[in-house]
Design a protein that fits this description.
It contains eleven helices and eight strands. The chain has helices spanning about 10, 30-55, 55-75, 95-100, 115-125, 165-175, 200-210, 225-240, 250-260, 275-285, 290-315, and strands spanning about 85-90, 105-110, 130-135, 150-155, 180-190, 250, 265-275, 325-330. Bound molecules: S-adenosylmethionine.
Amino acid sequence: MFCLLNPMSYTSSSSTPGAFVRRPRIHVTTPELEAQENQWWEKHSQLIHEIWGLPEALSDAVRGPYLLATLEKLLRELPARPLKILELGCGAGWASRHLATTETKLTGIDFSENQIALARQNAKEHKLNCNYVVGNFLSADQQISFSDCDAVFVHCALHHLSTEELHQVFGLFSKLPKGSKVVLIEPVYLDQGSPLLAWLDKPLRKLSRKLWGSLHVSAPANQILQKQTEDLIEESNSKAWFLSPKEVPFTVEELSDLATGAGLKMTEAPKPVTYFGLETAQTIVMLADKEKTLQQGPGAIAKNVWLDDLLLTFGILPRLTNNYFFCRICLEK
Ligand SMILES: C[S@@+](CC[C@H](N)C(=O)[O-])C[C@H]1O[C@@H](n2cnc3c(N)ncnc32)[C@H](O)[C@@H]1O
């Protein structure tokens, strides 16, 4: 049993050899590469939706705590009310459920008309104070005034861009007003792995599984979903992609250079937001018993979120592996 997007599964117990190729970022996107990327998403969108999007209850359990902490940080640090937040690459708008409150006004932009339609439906169902726009965020300043935003939020969309495109987006950030914030949640190679802590791998994984309670690892898996995921990863490996043709996690140096170029200050070092929490969510979503998964999954995830927090507090989490972590990056204009 393994999960898709959390690196730890592969570093020690994967049956899939060599998963998650570490490669340099693509500098310039060619039309061929763009077409290849679009085809990849077309082909795998349903699978990615299942294993990355996750059922709402599981996604909320793993992402809710770090999104709530992010919202609280923004509200604490920025006085404007409503706080105007722009979300780039908002997809189906699931993050809005956590960021849209009576104190915020959220605008989301995404170039997928289908995703924006889902986001609008989601906002209507949850009565959220959100406005969604179909558009390319590389030229979002044509539709949205950056000088009028208090904060920009991006969840796992920028690492899909080429270096040239990243410079375009960070160029837009330079139009933000002084004092505004940019918060990114993106995969980052922290490169702080310690061989001394490698011995913790096995006991920590055991503890993580213990925290699952009766949703034990030996529960039968959904063989079809598991096989589709294995095939997806094997295809990426065979082509020396990370996962989709264009995506590459960031390095700290790369983020720091981009921020400096846009006149932004990194106010805290990139910090992992989830590890065992996401691994648990992505592994239990592959279990065959959906009813049990949805009933007991959120509790199992919450306990693993607690484990992540504990490991982070003691500075252990970022040192467990040299592979990437989903991190929060806080920037200020
Ligand atoms: C990997 S998904 C992330 C979605 C969501 N934020 C999440 O974390 O689940 C990237 C999203 O960015 C959108 N996207 C990618 N490039 C874009 C661009 N240049 N302009 C607008 N949207 C873009 C895609 O349509 C997709 O919804």
